[in-house]
Write a structure and sequence with these properties.
The chain has 14 helices and no strands. With 267 residues, it is mainly α.
């Protein structure tokens, strides 16, 4: 091979934010099949509770409010449970423990792209988890007043919530490097999940629960999702839902990137 041919065959390493983002996201997605035990329960549990809640409460709810579709009311709850807490944070802990993270930080890889790449993988995963939940709802007779595009919006809103919530487990993973701490991060969601309109409409809540639900961001996300089912394209409810997602996202992403900066300084 001549020197000219050798020079022609040499290619500079592709660099840049988008390249690093794609590389991290691709790696995160390829590791998902190895984490089946962490993904399957995320789908089975919300479907199980959806079926149980509908089976046990539907008759009571519809007897109190004739014509009320409790299946449709519960579908947003099921999809929120399916997408919340799903992240590559356990894999990040593994990377920290086996030294992969330390090797990564001595490379020219963009640090922001590293964390965002994991979140891109999370986005793909939570969308994949959302589809079976929505399909089950459709099979049980839930219809969307917003039409087919409303179904797409329903999945995307839930997926955006799932991704912004990942900031919390990533912050814990980077701060502690502990698998137990990351696995317990889902406990952060319980106040969000149950101190809200998960089981009854807001007007049926009373006392301290009504007061807390009013300031709970998940209340507004659930109402945005329900508006696509019961109303159609309600700009006000959708705007409140997106505002809630953005508000939680600002807090969770600040914590995640602050933890990343702390881990880099520590390294």
């Amino acid at each position: 091979m001549t020197a000219a041919n050798l020079t022609t065959n040499i290619r500079a390493r592709e660099v840049g934010f988008l390249h690093d983002l794609r590389a991290v996201a691709t790696r995160g997605l390829t590791l998902i099949p190895r984490d089946v035990e962490g993904v399957v329960p995320a789908l089975i549990i919300p479907i199980f509770f959806f079926i149980v809640n509908v089976g046990s409460l539907q008759e009571i709810a519809e007897s109190q409010a004739p014509g009320f579709d409790y299946k449709a009311f519960q579908l947003p709850v099921a999809i929120i449970f399916a997408v919340t807490g799903i992240s590559r944070a356990p894999n990040l802990v593994t990377d920290i423990q086996d030294g992969y993270f330390d090797r990564m930080v001595v490379t020219p890889m963009n640090r922001v792209a590293f964390l965002l790449g994991l979140m891109v993988a999370d986005l793909v995963l939570v969308i994949a988890l959302s589809i079976p939940v929505v399909t089950l709802g459709l099979l049980l007779g839930v219809s969307f007043e917003a039409g087919p595009l409303g179904i797409v919006a329903f999945i995307l809103i839930a997926a955006l919530w799932g991704v912004v919530f990942t900031g919390f487990p990533y912050a814990i993973a980077l701060k502690t490097g502990s698998p137990a701490a990351v696995n317990s991060s889902f406990l952060l969601f319980f106040p969000f999940a149950f101190l809200t309109t998960a089981f009854v409409p807001e007007e049926a809540l009373t006392g301290w629960l009504a007061a807390i639900a009013k300031y709970n961001p998940v209340t507004y996300i659930l109402e945005a999702l329900r508006s696509l089912i019961f109303v159609g394209w309600d700009a006000s409810e959708l705007a409140k839902g997106f505002a809630a997602i953005i508000g939680v996202g600002i807090v969770s992403q600040f914590l995640a990137f602050a933890a990343l900066r702390g881990r880099l300084r520590q390294g």
